[in-house]
């Protein structure tokens, strides 16, 4: 059975009951004069708060940006506030993306408030040969589905908030820092007094496959690049590149089988 996108609010049945052919349109209120072509052309699909402020920051960085917004009124508001091209249309329609110049886009950011829409946008972009896509995920449960569809770069506001909370909690020994491509992520692990790795050299610690200690910060805040002879001490903070499914084994090796485990 083909997996379906879980939605954060209304059901999928409440969405399109039949295909819609909403042609993009531009006018004096929805489209401003074209900006000078810069090194990167970015399509921002979705003109809500996230899309608006993202486009604003990208424009400040001197990128060429086109915002696509379905709602005519909202598109007009954005056109009045941003010195950027605004295209009023449905980003889920291939005709809209074609009119937006998807063939020459370097990056598409699908940041609507609807996970289904963001998935469709990224899949059309990939079919059109866009080299990079970034999707906003409103329901964290959909992250795995996006990755199965080949959309590796996703942003979940929920996960960002959780990561920030974990950084503020001193009782957490494993802190997620950054998600990379292909299931890799960068984490911080603090070595407790009871760690089986405390007092041992890096080469003597059997890490999971595809895991690497890239930086060690001692309790005094002094960073150092590790070598095989580097000794791991209690209180050290390790920056580790690993796979998400290797976290249980990594925790056992560097922290201990029971230390800090959730109850």
Keywords:
single chain; alpha/beta; Alpha-Beta Plaits; five-stranded antiparallel sheet; 7 helices; 21% strand; disordered C terminus
Question: What does it look like?
Answer:
The chain is of the alpha/beta class. It contains seven helices and eleven strands. The chain has helices at 49-60, 72-81, 94-99, 115-127, 143-148, 157-168, 247-254; strands spanning 41-45, 64-69, 85-88, 107-110, 133-137, 154-156, 174-179, 184-190, 212-217, 223-224, 237-243. The strands form two sheets. A six-stranded parallel beta sheet has the order 3-2-1-4-5-6, with helices on both faces.
CATH homologous superfamily assignment of the largest domain: NAD(P)-binding Rossmann-like Domain
- Unreliable stretches covering 5 or more consecutive residues: 1-38, 258-263
What gross morphology would you assign? Answer: elongated
Proportion in helices: 25-40%
Binned strand content: 15-25%
In short:
With 263 residues, the chain is α/β, with parallel strands linked by helices.
Topology (elements, then pairings):
Layout: E1 41-45, H1 49-60, E2 64-69, H2 72-81, E3 85-88, H3 94-99, E4 107-110, H4 115-127, E5 133-137, H5 143-148, E6 154-156, H6 157-168, E7 174-179, E8 184-190, E9 212-217, E10 223-224, E11 237-243, H7 247-254
Parallel strand pairs: 1-2, 1-4, 2-3, 4-5, 5-6
Antiparallel strand pairs: 7-8, 8-11, 9-10, 9-11
């Amino acid at each position: 059975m083909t997996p379906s996108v879980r939605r954060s609010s209304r059901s999928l049945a409440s969405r399109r009951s039949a295909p819609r052919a909403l042609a993009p349109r531009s006018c004096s209120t929805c489209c401003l004069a074209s900006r000078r072509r810069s090194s990167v052309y970015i399509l921002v699909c979705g003109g809500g708060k996230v899309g608006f402020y993202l486009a604003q920051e990208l424009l400040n960085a001197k990128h060429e940006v086109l915002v696509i917004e379905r709602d005519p009124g909202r598109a007009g508001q954005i056109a009045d506030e941003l010195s950027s091209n605004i295209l009023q249309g449905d980003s889920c329609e291939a005709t809209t993306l074609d009119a937006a110049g998807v063939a020459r886009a370097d990056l598409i950011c699908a940041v609507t408030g609807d996970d289904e829409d963001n998935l469709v946008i990224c899949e059309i972009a990939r079919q059109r040969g866009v080299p990079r896509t970034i999707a906003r995920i409103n329901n964290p449960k959909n992250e795995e589905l996006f990755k199965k569809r080949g959309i590796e770069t996703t942003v979940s506001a929920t996960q960002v908030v959780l990561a920030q909370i974990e950084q503020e909690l001193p009782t957490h020994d494993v802190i997620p820092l950054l998600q990379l491509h292909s299931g890799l992520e960068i984490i911080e692990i603090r070595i407790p007094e009871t760690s089986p790795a405390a007092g041992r050299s890096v080469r003597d610690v059997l890490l999971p496959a595809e895991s690497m200690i890239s930086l060690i910060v001692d309790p005094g805040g002094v960073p150092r690049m590790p070598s095989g002879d580097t000794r791991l001490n209690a209180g050290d903070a390790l920056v580790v590149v690993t796979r998400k499914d290797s976290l249980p084994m990594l925790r056992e090796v560097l922290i201990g089988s029971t230390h800090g485990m959730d109850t």
